Amino acid sequence: MEHYNMNLNLKVWRQKNKNDKGSLVDYKVSGISSEMSFLEMIDVLNEKLVADGKDEPIAFDHDCREGICGMCSMYINGRPHGPWAGTTTCQLHMRAFKDGDTIVIEPWRAKAFPVIKDLVVDRTAFDRIIQAGGYISVNTGNAVDANAIPIPKDDADKAFAAAACIGCGACVAACKNASAMLFVSAKVSQLALLPQGKPEAQKRVLDMVAQMDKEGFGSCTNTGACEAECPKEISLENIARLNREFTSASIMSEE
Amino acid sequence: MTLNSKIPAGPIEKKWEDYKGHVKLVNPANKRKLEIIIVGTGLAGASAAASLGELGYKVKTFCFQDSPRRAHSIAAQGGINAAKNYQNDGDSVYRLFYDTIKGGDYRAREGNVHRLAEVSTNIIDQCVAQGVPFAREYGGLLSNRSFGGTQVQRTFYAAGQTGQQLLLGAYSALERQIALGNVTQYSRHEMLDVVTIDGKARGIIAKNLVTGELERHFGHAVLLCTGGYGNVFYLSTNAMGSNVTAAWKAHKKGAFFGNPCFTQIHPTCIPVSGDHQSKLTLMSESLRNDGRIWVPKKQGDTRKPNEIPEEERDYYLERRYPAFGNLVPRDVASRAAKERCDAGFGVGASKMAVYLDYADAIQRYGKIEVGKQGLDNVSKEKIIELGKAVVKEKYGNLLDMYSKITGENPYEVPMRIYPAVHYTMGGLWVDYELMTSVPGLYALGEANFSDHGANRLGASALMQGLADGYFVIPYTIGNYLADEIAVKPIPTDSPEFLAAEKATADRINTLMNIKGTKSVESFHKRLGKIMWDKCGMARNAEGLKEAITEIQALKKEFWSDVKIPGDINSFNPELDKAGRVADFIELGELMCKDALDRNESCGGHFREESQTEEGEALRDDEHYKYVAAWEFKGESDWQLNKEELIYENIKIAARSYK
Fold first, then answer.
1. For B503-644, which CATH class?
2. In this complex, do B74 and A152 lie within 8 Å of one another by their Cβ atoms?
3. For site-directed labelling of B275, which of A104, A219, B31, B623 has its Cα 20 to 30 A away?
4. Cβ distance of B274 and A35 shorter than 8 Å
5. Global pTM?
6. Residues of B in contact with A67 (CB under 8 A)
7. Is B330 labeled as catalytic in the residue annotation?
């Protein structure tokens, strides 16, 4: 593929802290290579801002830059993680854009994800949902031999597909109701599909859903935006499975 | 000072069992009164925190990321070793022990490594019980694959996301303990000093990265699980935030630094594409199972890879190392790639790359599928299509990542790869109990130096991180804490805490008041270039001496001309990065000093002065069979303490993979 350079107009959300109102600010960057990652383009802008000394560099979350830690979180031209399907912001490369493009960059927007600064939001609500039940209660040292319980490959593969969730929050950002159903359903599914997760399955789904509601995430209305934008392509089937688990657990718990 | 590694006496296979049988215990009522601080929440930190919380200790965990689940363990791809012998191919605890010692080029402790091999099997059991979705066969049992430096299949994996699945398992266990009130988590917090009182570690100074406030935290013991220091090279496969700061502060408070020059350069990474490069991406070593590495036989060949006929390709690993071929250990594979590129056979625009080719594997798997599915009269295209599907299932996510980064299709065109800094075998010196030279201060996982010698084998980092956290520290920490049960929590307004906080605040103020002209990033890049050029894949005395002088000058310039925007009492990533880069600069000097001292080639450390006529690494057991444990004495001043390595069970020999 041919490499090329481009000049871009950026509109970036700037917000000093959680109490600040915030606004979009215009920046121009030039000589951006099509080989750069999106975050390397932001690095270029930030180095320029440091040199100019007028605005502070843009605060944004990022860490592994390999698409797996789930830390990066930009809402690019109206889409979480930008235009490429199945891709995190850090893996989005500048060949997705062309010379002269305008790019609007905003933080995740959801009541349960308050902005800390600029593009950085607080996602600790996800940790609290996991604390409510996203685990199997097995203390270190209690395990039987790993091959003692054969697990059908199909179940194992489905559990693995659900477990691929990186907890980035794109599903919430994509949803018009800011629902966290895809995130919660991925963990509920992974553990419900495995025999090790069965003993706690009912309590898990009820507790995790209750915590999700308490954190202020919205309801799921099955629009599928989360699946479309998920960088790990977590399937909506997981939400269907969560609903089945939730319904049966609710009935059972009333008995 | 004499170093006591506290290796238990007795035959190797009984050491750990005997130790566990005689170690001091802490009763449950006393555990509730003992507080433990854990810095870092990757595999080592999260598994330690969960296990110690389960035991009833009061635990506090700290991480600089927004959640413990982000720790860089998550990016490990290929797998985790365990001596399960599920494949019936001759594996055993002894073989894993032997392979690890040999792979580490005879620079690791026998006692530690044998223990690691012993507990490896428990790790797999524990992870499966937690719901970690390892790859399985159709019969429902666990699948294995092979990895560099071994001749058995002992690697467990979850596609190319093994680290992610293991970390999320440990994270879930940690979150459960948080919910139960046994662990308190502090995210977006960075440790900036260890507090010592009467020679013992008693707490830390941490910075709340959101508000900029400094906090004082007490602990009867402090565990550093803060990973490696590969980012001293600027470009590495580490996460952007990975840093040496916690370990370095501990070092300056008395913890010895072990073998700092032992860094691992991983052979299969995506090559640098330009000056904008902020990090390098690894392609799992598991790709070498099926991929073949080659360069053109002709120097400076400008043809496209698919235009170069078979007989004009040099499969140099298969040629040089027929017994292991493409599966030689990482250090050997990396040096061989550098050798070919330096000699003018490199490929791609930069000529600093070699090919990793899947064409043969696609053919081979395609034919196997034809047999499996009982197909007749199959076209060439159909075979390739079937083969691609198999390769996709095994390595799909890795090949997708390559395609996103480079814009090329690895199913059609050979991938270009080049070695990159990946892991640091060196780290804080610890004894058998994982305690540093400061009583009450422990180091686990990549942060310590202990188990990998001079070169780590693939799929062994995850094993060591989880071994330390799940199965070693829960026993060994009791041996120290049993004598601490009478110690009441020390108030954090005691003079030692206040002095440590003031020193930290003063340093931050000094940094902010330099108001120079050059960005933090520019200093980091320059340090990285010095380290890569002179303390990278090959080193020599002259270059290392130059590097030391250059680093000292860079340090001076940093402290007089760095420019840090923003203010102290707010979320200020540039300020945080400045502190980390300042520590990397000091570490860089020590790494070069250590590399200069070790006038032998071993593992990841290749001294040009010490090689065989064939250009293979030449170890010098007579003079360098020791762990170099450096003691901080003052600015640019270290004392070398040596821990002699004793091999009672393995006969040391020249390492050959031919």
1. mainly alpha
2. no
3. A104
4. yes
5. 0.97
6. 401, 404
7. yes
d(CA B361, CA B363): 5
Q: Which domains does chain A have, with CATH numbers?
A: 5-106 (3.10.20.30), 124-254 (1.10.1060.10)
CATH, range B269-421: 3.90.700.10
Residue extents of the structural domains in chain B: 269-421, 503-644
**pLDDT, greater one: B657 or B294:** B294
Contact (CB<8Å) B67/A167: yes
User: For the segment B264-312, what is each residue's pLDDT rounded down to a tens digit?
Assistant: 999 999 999 989 999 999 988 889 989 999 999 999 999 999 999 999 9
The minimal CB distance from A65 to the residues B86, B133, B240 is found for B240
Rounded Cα distance, B599 and A65, in Å: 36
Token pair belonging to B211: 């508000």
- Mean pLDDT value across chain B: 96
The CA angle B219-B220-B224, to the nearest 5 degrees, is 65
Question: Of A131, A141, A163, which has the smallest distance from its Cβ to B179's Cβ?
Answer: A131
Of B70, B129, B404, the CB nearest to A69: B70
Taking the C-alpha atoms of residue A199 and residue A192, their distance in angstroms, rounded to an integer, is 9
Query: Of these residues, B115, B154, B216, B330, which one is catalytic?
Result: B330
User: Tokens standing for B473?
Assistant: 């520290």
The amino acid sitting at B41 is T
Read off the pLDDT of each residue in B314-321 and give the average, rounded to a whole number: 96
CA distances to B278, B380, B410, B474 from A213, rounded to whole Å, are: 39, 55, 44, 37
**What residues of chain A lie within 8 A of the CB of B139, using their CB?**
150
Instruction: Return the residue matching tokens 């002209």.
Output: B517
- List the beta strands (DSSP E) in B543-644: 562-563, 626-634, 637-644
> Closest approach of chain A CAs to the CA of B466, in angstroms?
11
**Taking CB atoms and an 8 Å limit, are A156 and B133 in contact across chains?**
yes
| Longest CA–CA separation in chain B, Å | 84
Give pLDDT tens digits for B384-408: 999 999 999 888 888 999 999 999 9
CATH topology match: B269-421 vs B503-644: no
